[in-house]
Amino acid sequence: EHLDTYMQFIPSPLWMDLEVALGILTGYYPPTDAGYQDFFELHDDITLHLHEYIVKQNRTFHINANNTNICRCFQEAITSPFANLHNEPQQAILAYQHSVKQKNELNTDHYAFVSFNFTDVFDRCLIHSCKPASSNRQNNFNLESVLGATPEVIHIHGNTVASHNNRHLLLGINDTTQADNNFHRPKDLEAYLVKPRINESLENGYAKKIANMIERSQYIILCGTSLGPTDKVWWQMIGAWLGFNTNNRLIIHTYLQRGQ
Predict the structure, then answer these.
(1) How confident is the model over 27-71, as pLDDT tens digits?
(2) Which residue has the higher pLDDT, 145 or 235?
(3) At how many degrees (to 10) do helices 33-59 and 17-25 cross?
(4) How many Cα atoms are found within 13 Å in the side-chain-facing hemisphere of 37?
(5) Could you give the CA distance from residue 169 to residue 119 in angstroms, rounded to a whole number?
(6) Interior CA angle at 101 toward 241 and 129, to 5°?
(7) pLDDT digits (tens, 9 = 90+) for 95-106
(8) Which residue of 8, 25, 26, 193 could cross-link 172, Cys pair, CB 3.0 to 4.6 Å?
């Protein structure tokens, strides 16, 4: 029953609209104790079903250090992040990098990884790309020679691997303006549905850590994320970061359907 109600309010098949629908649904139930209880039960039900679905999908992805194509593509994406840019911005970035490294006598780049995804697919790609391939392979290059060690991937919305229950998935909205005006329990809403507030209340400190990563970065590369309104806090933070330094660069990889 909850799923049927939920599906009626999803504006489009885009991933971000799964969360947009939750904000819309705060106005579907009456502003009574029973209505609020029904809404939060719906939220729990949706999160549980999403958790079960993602666990199944996650199991369909298999990788090891000998998956040549996946590891090679992943390595190239990490080590040559500007390769697909047009010539003018690519050359400008490379020239700036060269001047900085000469001035500071730095020969290494530092990487940090944040995932908005609930699966550990990215983590596994990173781990296996950092491992040396089988000894009988001619190309034994691995990312660990670039990164120094396999870095941590921060899952700002939680993930299915680290938990055995639906509570670890963070599914919600960016702020109370994305909920219906008739929802008269803002404290409950913030504690249960507003993702930035929930992250601030967690003891892992991930939100502050990511904010610090953004502030200290020279380049930010986005891929596989919808740039939706329910994560607006991060897009606003990155927008402000772009204004701090004219040499800061944001690269966004667009999603193409198969065949495009």
Answers:
(1) 888 888 888 888 888 888 888 888 888 899 888 888 765 666 777
(2) 235
(3) 170
(4) 3
(5) 10
(6) 80
(7) 887 777 666 655
(8) 193
For tokens 């249960």, name the residue.
192
Which residues on adjacent β-strands are paired with residue 194?
Answer: 173
Contact 30, 145 (CB under 8 A): no
**DSSP class of residue 178?**
G
How does pLDDT run across 81-96, given as a tens digit for each residue? Answer: 888 888 888 888 888 8
Strand ranges, E, within 141-218: 153-155
Question: At 19, which amino acid appears?
Answer: E
Q: Is 104 helix (H, G, I), strand (E, B) or coil?
A: helix
pLDDT tops 80 at residue 131: no
Residue with tokens 């690269």: 251
Beta bridge partners of 59: none
What does the alpha-carbon distance between residue 133 and residue 68 come to, in Å, rounded to a whole number? Answer: 9
- Rounded CA-CA distance 167/153 in Å is 20
Q: What b/e sequence results for 87-120 when a residue is b if at least 16 CB atoms lie within 10 Å of its CB, and e otherwise?
A: eeeeeebeeebeeeeeeeeeeeeeebbbbbbbbb
Bridge-based pairing of strands 153-155 and 113-115 is parallel
**Residue 10 structure tokens:** 């999803």
